[in-house]
Please model this.
Amino acid sequence: MKKIISFAIAAVMLFTLCFTVASCNKDDNVLVMATNAAFPPYEYVEGDKFVGIDVEIATAIAEKLGMELQIEDVEFGSIIGGVVEGKYDMGMAGMTVTEERKKSVNFSDTYATGIQVIIVKDGSSITSLDDIFEFNSDGDPVALKNPDVKVGVQQDTTGDIYSSSDVTGWGLCDVKEDGTVTKDRVVRYKTGAEAVEALKTDKVDMVIIDNEPAKSFVAANEGIHILEGENEYAIEDYAICVAKENTELLEKINKALKELKEDGTIDKIVGKYIKAN
Model:
């Protein structure tokens, strides 16, 4: 019995010590933002600095909260998990609000709208959505024109999520009712730049990615272009993700976003990176 009690006391002391160390290491005056800095113009690296729309908006939010912003550059797919585990206070990476993601985290009010577009090589046989899908009389996709088509995406982004669904859901995979994928036509890369490079070297037939990064990639790479006209792949809202139990921070972020919208700060930041047509 004495051994059991001694072990229990030691365990409690160890837990208390670990909790105390963790608390001491956590600076309440620092707002830790997880991002994936390979998504221009929302977040990218310029010299030795993080820049972009999300970076500047996050900086403005931190100033509103009287906090110092600390940016952690991680793989996109690890952002939500890190927020849930408490490694980061928030995730901000051109992240779309989806029902699946809302199961794990809460989202702030929307601060930007994104459009998923398709990039192809010059001279590609894909010139519109009609070259990718067969549609029924209601305008819904029912089959693929080319069953061997390959699409490149940045892993875990909404481009990946959308294209990984069944054709009837505007995806490019064959998926059974139980969710089993019988044919996966999606090639996933860690960054959008890697997906674009795969397109240039004919490893994929097209790339699905957000419109603004797409424009940056096209400007930096000859021989590729975005499908024009009414060929948007998806339209989505961007928001900041926060751990479900961190309701106080979420309220503060939403209050800051509201003020930044009302005083024109967000429009000014977006206009700095995205010029009106």
